[in-house]
Amino acid sequence: MNKIEHIGIAVKDLNSSIEIYQKLLNTDCYKTEQVASESVNTAFFKTGENKVELLQATAPDSAIARFIEKKGEGIHHIAFLVDDILAEMERLHKEGFVLLNESPKKGADNKMVCFVHPKDTNGVLIEICQEIKWI
């Protein structure tokens, strides 16, 4: 794993949260995106080398909606950037981690993603992601 790619924060209201984080981080949201496969709308911020992703549910039965219902708004996941997501998934599987995805799927911000079950990581949902390279 190369570095923390972003920290994902579950929010109830994306627009008001964008305003809060623009003030907090003293920078504009550089991208919003809908990820239909995850039933979320996202907003991204950069501060130095770091990124923050805000996630708002678009369906009441989505993972983000269930997370907020159970735990409230807050940190949802930590994402790590990898060079080869397939190799990293294989490595993690061999180490005994339960992966929530059998194969990588398209996520937000031009990434292929896979999640590691939080029961194996002390309650923290871990995302591994790889930049999609266009040839």
UniProtKB/TrEMBL annotation:
The keyword Isomerase is annotated on this UniProt entry: yes
InterPro entries hit by this protein: Glyas_Bleomycin-R_OHBP_Dase, MeMalonyl-CoA_epimerase, MMCE/EMCE_epimerase, VOC_core
Record keywords: Isomerase, Metal-binding
One Gene Ontology biological process: L-methylmalonyl-CoA metabolic process
Domain of life: Bacteria
EC number: 5.1.99.1
Domain VOC: 3-131
A GO molecular function held by the record: methylmalonyl-CoA epimerase activity
Protein family per UniProt: Belongs to the methylmalonyl-CoA epimerase family.
Classification via PANTHER family: METHYLMALONYL-COA EPIMERASE, METHYLMALONYL-COA EPIMERASE, MITOCHONDRIAL
Stated name of the protein: Methylmalonyl-CoA epimerase
Organism of derivation: Pedobacter roseus
Recorded name of the encoding gene: mce
